[in-house]
Amino acid sequence: MIRFSNASKRYPGGQEALSNVSFTIEAGELVFLTGRSGAGKSTLFKLIPVIERATSGSVIVNGQNVSAIKPAAVPFLRRNLGLVFQDQKLLYDRSVFDNVLLPLSFSGFTPREAARRARAALDKVGLSAREKLNPIQLSGGEQQRVAIARAVANRPSVLIADEPTANLDADSAEAILQIFLSFQQVGVTVLIATHDLALIGRSGKRVLKLEQGRLVEGGDPA
Amino acid sequence: MNAWLSQHAQAFRGALRKLAMQRASSLLNVLVIGIALALPAGGYVLLVNLQGVAARFSLEPQMSIFLDAGAKPADREALEKALRTDARVGSFRFVSKEAALAELNKTEGIAEVAAALGQNPLPDSLVARLRENLPPELDALAADLRKRPGVGHVQADSGWARRLAALIEIGRMTVAFVGLLLSTGMIAVTFNTIRLQVLMQREEIEVAKLLGASDSFVRRPFYYVGALQGLAGGGVGLAILAGGLALLNRGVLALSETYGSTFELSFLAPGDALAVAAFASVLGWLGAYLSVSIYLRGIEPSYSP
User: Fold this and answer.
1) Residues in chain B within 8 Å Cβ distance of A162
2) Which among A52, A108, A57 is positioned nearest to A80, based on CA atoms?
3) Looking at the predicted structure, is the pLDDT value of residue A174 above 80?
4) Domain limits at B148?
5) B25 and B84 both lie in a single domain
6) Is B28 within 8 Å of B189 (Cβ atoms)?
7) Does B211 contact A91 at a Cβ distance shorter than 8 Å?
8) Choosing among B203, B210, B303, which should be mutated to test the A contact, i.e. which has the most A CBs within 10 A?
9) Same domain as A35, residue A14
């Protein structure tokens, strides 16, 4: 469950990137976040794993107000979130498998259990056969799937993705969408920031729309 | 406990990987640390050996009063009385010439010489322990005693021993100073190594933190790198020291043989050698700790798509 209540974010320098945003995503729901470039999608995305903190209002993730969380607690919050970044942030000095293994290596799993989970995650995104390759050898769509496998390896209850289909052809984008839908079906709460309107239209899911930092569609009634 | 152990095992493997990734510079660092360690450790070994030599001689101020061969018993009694009442003298004992010869015969290589002389060349003497340790006092007392009848020769024989003690003290200070400087150097070597590694692995660190790695998870492998590098450097330092001593001992043994002795420089006691290696490891850890504390603080994951 994700709930923003009057959340605002003002960057040093005075520019307000988000203004009084309020919305609720119920557990197990899949919601799209859309809007033009600069409308505040990335800022909203960053408030959830506390890459940035809200200047006012609250951001509640699974019952915890993360905008007031102690710095020492941030790693534990992030381990319970699946994050998919627009630039993927894969490491190109290691194999696909080791990329997926990374978040499991510091979450207290035994090496055997960590390896098992990494394989399961790669299996879910259909890349089991490619685990020994370097991500650089994969296509853009495949790299995005590696990033998703890494995000879900810890079996988080919340999965958030920033422009996961940017720069992908329609078929690859569709494949990515199907993966997110399959996670929603097993109870994961999913938030996808995107400006791919075709993708949104095909899915028939609820949409949150940002314009100049304000939520103009899909928000909680004021 | 199990998870804790496996995290440390993982950090240890991570450290080995980081070291292996830059094998050449790791080896150079180990060598530099080893050399920097061998110097003060070598100085310390020499001092310990020298102290062993010095300890065989009394460092207490002591004065030997040799009687004339023709001294009368009355002269000796008067002298003993004077020593007994002199405030500068703590205690004294009479050493007859027979006792002196017997004692001399215990010293290596001297027995043959003494036997060759046929008759005892040594005089009777009085050996006094003094309360005062200051050269002017000693000289004044010696001058007083020299004037007495029956006294042949007075020797304040603690002088050279005190000089040796002072030299050892200077040596100790020098070793401590050099050790301090080179320890700082060792910390600096590790500090810089870790700094470069942190900067090179910035991306990996950022991604790991974005995915929920704790600070200690990120820091731990670097600590192991520092400690392992220090430990390896300590081993190399001890090896250099052992090799150097073996080389020196050829000369030392040849020299001491001419004195009829089998003296040679001995290596550090096992406990001391362990302490040297552990110390190097701690310095490496410290260098890593300082470096990581400074350079990791600046790495907070940012995300600007």
Assistant:
1) 305
2) A108
3) yes
4) 62-157
5) no
6) no
7) no
8) B303
9) yes
Q: A135: which DSSP letter? A: G
Segment (H or E) for B129: strand B125-130
Which two tokens mark A144? 């995005």
One domain for residues A60 and A124: no
Instruction: List CB contacts (< 8 A) between B3 and chain A.
Output: 108, 110
Q: What is the mean pLDDT of residues A194-216?
A: 90
Task: Summarize pLDDT for B218-275 with one digit per residue, the tens.
Answer: 999 999 999 999 999 999 999 999 999 999 998 888 888 887 777 888 898 899 999 9
Q: Phi then psi for B129, rounded to 5 degrees?
A: -90, 135
Query: 3-class secondary structure for B160-213?
Result: HHHHHHHHHHHHHHHHHHHHHHHHHHHHHHHHHHHHHHHHHCHHHHHHHHHCCC
Q: Do A91 and B7 touch (CB under 8 A)?
A: no
| Radius of gyration (C-alpha) of chain B in whole angstroms | 31
**DSSP single-letter state for residue B270:** H
Q: Which pLDDT tens digit goes with each residue over A183-196?
A: 999 999 999 999 88
In A, which residues are within 8 Å of B206 by CB distance?
Answer: 89
Q: What is the distance in angstroms between the CA of the first residue and the CA of the last residue of chain A?
A: 19
Q: Do residues B23 and B89 both lie within one domain?
A: no
